[in-house]
Amino acid sequence: MSSTKLTGSEKRALLLWVLAGIAGVFFAHRYFFRAFPEASVDFKVSRPEAMTRAKTFLSGLGENVDGYRSSIEFSVEELEKVYLERELGLQQANQLAASQINLWYWNVRFYRVLEEEEYQIRVSPSGQIAGYTHKLPEAKAGATLQQASAQALAEDFFTKKLGKDANEWSFLPEEANSQKKPNRLDWDFTWEKHGLKVKDAPYREQIHIAGDKPTGAEETLQVPELWKRSYERLRSGNNTLALVFFVIYFALIGLAVWYAIVFTKSGQTKWGLAIKLGALAAGLLLLRAFGVKEIESRRISRLPLAALPEIRLRTAVINGFGAA
Fold first, then answer.
1. Model pTM?
2. Is 262 a member of any domain?
């Protein structure tokens, strides 16, 4: 039974791949939390706890969601996250997101099939209510309040139901506006957080009043329109480049396959080492797939997410080997 020995060049190539894998592991370990800030989120409430807090909040508003279907997912304000990272850098952006700005949240939804009316509540990782939407049909009947009465209702909701300290926020009278619906009058009122402004982006809370009841609370970092347009142009350029390189990539793959066929027919190809390395790569990619699956299962399971950073870091280490 004959055995194939590695040549000197093949041994050097294998050594380079091993060194590249070690470098990949080191890089993943060192920069993981910078590249994936969600892994550093401090989860103080689990998925079922977030669901319970959302129901408690609705009950405090006098809303009854018995008979409603429910869903929950963990999400992020992507545009605000990108703005913070590009304007402040990853480390400072992560610190701000962990302490003052609610970028990450559990999005809890209560709904009925084929009905327009539904509830959405955002619960922050720390357990605070970070957003609320009660979606009503446009034609649903309601009161027609004057601005002063609607504003008093919004202020009460802002401080008592959302638990905001009025001394830490400034009311913006110029942002108050109304929307006439077929059978009611809706209002929007806005507050701005003191001392919390990222470059040209203030941190605000908008309260929506539909008729005579609060139906919305949106807490956001107001990213400037000029920055949004600039970012959209950047993304458009990146998408164009991605398409160009995608075409080049498949052209190179086709060329490689053609040369492999030609060299195999002429007997110049040795497949032993390639098959072994391919099997190793396939095994690592399989482990990576299991790691990603484990992360997603943690997100939708009833278990706490305290182990999420460890799972993500383990996946990144596997990716370091897989990349090599």
1. 0.70
2. no
